[in-house]
Amino acid sequence: MALRILRIAFLALLAAGPALACRAPSGSDILIPRDRINQAMLSRAILDEVNYVRCRKGRHALTLAQDNLTNVALGHSTWMASAGTMSHVGGRETGRTLTDRVRRAGLRPATYAENLAFLPRYRFGGKPFRVADRASCQFMSVDGHRIGQHSYQSLAREVVTMWMKSPGHRRNLLDPSQRRMSAAASLSGEGYCGRFYVTQIFTG
């Protein structure tokens, strides 16, 4: 009987092997400042979240792009924040299309893709909240807990969760042909004390 239980437990571990081998990112709890976002820290946090979901789906890990891709992604995020819109069609100065943006980075990859998002500066998470004092950015959950602003880890986790719920974005995240990625964000003054515009670019 004991041998049978051990065998069942072993088979269960074997079946769950890939998922168990995937380590959830610990990330950084440093709050994202309003005036100067550490784009390298944000890009790493998003990469770690992406690689975690890729690992759980049996995909190889991506690496950070060691080129101008982060600056190009930042240029597009800055343009979106300034325009107050989320669009793959950008400004002339930052690249009208994704192809333009990739080429501005000095790259000619075999494959490339782009994910975009916008989300509040504060951790509303799509849940109801109430405004305690908008002037000082005081927000409360419906059960009375104060809602804080995003850290690098929480923003990365929320944006990757959002992308995984969207078929097109999910396809880009799990695409086996991609090898590298970069990401960047810019903060606008919209909404409740600010909104992040995020650009993520993959290359293969």
Show the helix and strand layout.
Layout (H helix, E strand, L loop, with lengths): L1 H14 L1 H5 L17 H18 L6 E2 L4 H15 L14 H7 L7 E9 L8 E5 L4 E4 L4 E2 L4 H13 L2 H8 L5 E9 L6 E9 L1
Parallel strand pairs: 1-6
Antiparallel strand pairs: 2-7, 3-4, 4-5, 6-7
Report the principal-axis shape: globular
Helix amount, in percent? Answer: 25-40%
Total DSSP E strands: 7
Largest sheet: 4 strands, mixed
SSE string, helix = H, strand = E?
Answer: HHHEHHEEEEHHEE
Number of helices: 7
Task: Indicate the structural class.
Answer: alpha+beta
Oligomer: single chain
Distance between the termini: 51 Å
- Cα radius of gyration in angstroms: 19 Å
Largest sheet: spatial strand order? 1-6-7-2
Mean pLDDT: 90
List unreliable stretches of 5+ residues: 8-16
Amount of beta strand: 15-25%
Structure description:
With 204 residues, the chain is α+β, with helices and mostly antiparallel strands. The protein is 39% helix and 20% strand. The protein is built from 7 helices and 7 strands. Strands 1-6-7-2 form a 4-stranded mixed β-sheet, sandwiched between helices. It has a 3-stranded antiparallel β-sheet with strand order 3-4-5, with no helix packed on it. α3 (39-56) packs across α6. The longest helix is centred in the N-terminal third of the chain and has 18 residues, at 39-56. It is globular and about 50 Å long. Residues 8-16 have low confidence and may be disordered.
